[in-house]
Structure formats: structure tokens, C-alpha cells
Amino acid sequence: NLIMGSTQTIGVLVPNLANPFFSMFIKGIQQASQSHHFVPIIFDANQNQKLQSMYIEELIKRAANGLIIASATLDANDIDRILTRNGIPYLLFDQNDAQIGDRVWVDDYKGGQMAANYLLAKGHRRIALVVGENITHNIQQRISGFRAGMAKYRLTLTDDMVVQTSMTKLGGYEATSEVISKKPTAVFCINDEMAIGLYRGVQERGLKIPDDLSIMGYDDIDLANFITPKLTSIHQPAFEMGQVATDLLIERLNNPKLAHQDKQLPLELITRDSVKSIQ
Ligand code: RIB
């Protein structure tokens, strides 16, 4: 890397490349990298600790200049130990939001509250929550915010209204029977991917969204606007998150003594057609 003219590299680890949320994040990383003459090297290592450790080791061997880690397979302290020992700056993000080092983040607690407020304002009281099996810190915040939103209406999200499945379209699809058995009027899916899978399951059973069941997602991936009915969601600025993460990391590479950097990006409620007003 010290050879003049060689391109500098940033290693990127995400949990799931098949999820458009992470594709947009990577697009943002790519764009910001390009303007600084860096190239990203991207890996997806969800739930596979061996694979993730192997990728990190490889990135170290190949002398990556810095790392952006969004998957939470390895604990933040382990990452810190490995990378600091090797003198490699890194930035933890999203599922790996451990508040160590530079930070790019959104207020997931507030995002959860926004979702709850919207569904409650539409008159929903019996609400089911669809979450992943592996609850990372950011998702935990999202759920806590949602609970707090319900508590303001003196409502409690009881455990029997929570369905756990994998955070994919298939996961959402497979959760359909369990979700329906809870007889909710609305369902909040912790990401859009699961909401899209649930759509298919619900529609296959002859139920209409939102007339028979309202569904809300989170992320606002591009697909949200191309399914029927269009999905109401909380927008995460994934592209910008990737850009800012890259900018911060490169600044850190250029100036290791820089004070701790913290950038919060906004979330936005995007109302479309998947939630019915029932008052
Ligand atoms: O869809 C992927 C989800 O997991 C997003 O909501 C993101 O924040 C991540 O943690």
C-alpha cells in the first residue's frame, strides 16, 4: 500500500448481500470510495463466524487500509482486538453498532416509536411484531422504541404477539400462519424483506392487504414501492449511510489523531398503501 500509485482498499463485511438495504449501503460505499481513489472489497458472512474471521484475516493479509463492518457475527471487542493489533482502522455500523470508535448511525429507538405512533394513530391496537431470530443491538433499540410508543397509549406488546423468523423474504413467508393465528389488525415487520414475504403468505390465503390485515415494514428498500399494495415503511438512508461511513473511515486513515467522529442520519416515515385506518 505504500507503493506509490497503488490503489487503497477498504474491506466491507455485511450480513446479507441479497437484501437491497445492504446493496444500497454498498453502492454508497462504492461511490464515496471512488472519489477518494479507494476500492471496496465486499464480503457477506452472515451467521458464520468462521467465514467472517477468515475474511477478516484475509483482508489483513492483503493489507486492507481500513474496514467497515456491518455484520454482527463477531463481537465488537474481538474485532477491536484483532484490528487494533494489526493497526487497521475500522468503523462498526448497523448490526454491529457497538459505539466503539467512529460512528454512523440512525436512531433506531425513534424509528420504532415512529412505526408504533403511525399504526396507533390509524386506530390499530392489536398489533403483531415480526422480528429476526438473532436480535442485534440496533434491532433491540427498534423494538424498545416500538414498545415505548405503545406504552404511551397504555398498551403492552405482549410476548405472544411477537413472531420470530429469519430476516428474509422466506422468513416472512414462513411466519404467515403464526402471524395470522394471533389475529392482529396490523403487523409491524422489523424489515421490509420480511414484510414482502408475509405479503405473499397473506395473499395466498386469500386475505387482502390492508383490508383484512395492515402491514408495515422498515428500511424502505426500493421494492417497497413496487409491490401491491405499496408498502408503508420507515426509510433508512442506506446509500448515504454507506457514503458517510466511507468518508469517515478515509478521514480517519488520513488523520489517525482526529477526534472521535459521530454522525447521525435521519429516518423518515414513508406512508403508502399497506395500512388501513380503522377508527
Ligand atoms: O434489512 C436489514 C435490516 O437489518 C435493516 O433494518 C438494518 O438496519 C439491519 O440491521
UniProtKB/TrEMBL annotation:
It comes from the Bacteria. The gene is rbsR. The keyword DNA-binding applies. This is Ribose operon repressor. Keywords: DNA-binding, Repressor, Transcription, Transcription regulation. One of its GO terms (molecular function) is DNA-binding transcription factor activity. It comes from Secundilactobacillus mixtipabuli. Signal peptide: none annotated. The keyword Transcription regulation applies. The chain holds residues 57 to 335 of 339 of the full protein. The lineage of its organism: Bacteria, Bacillati, Bacillota, Bacilli, Lactobacillales.
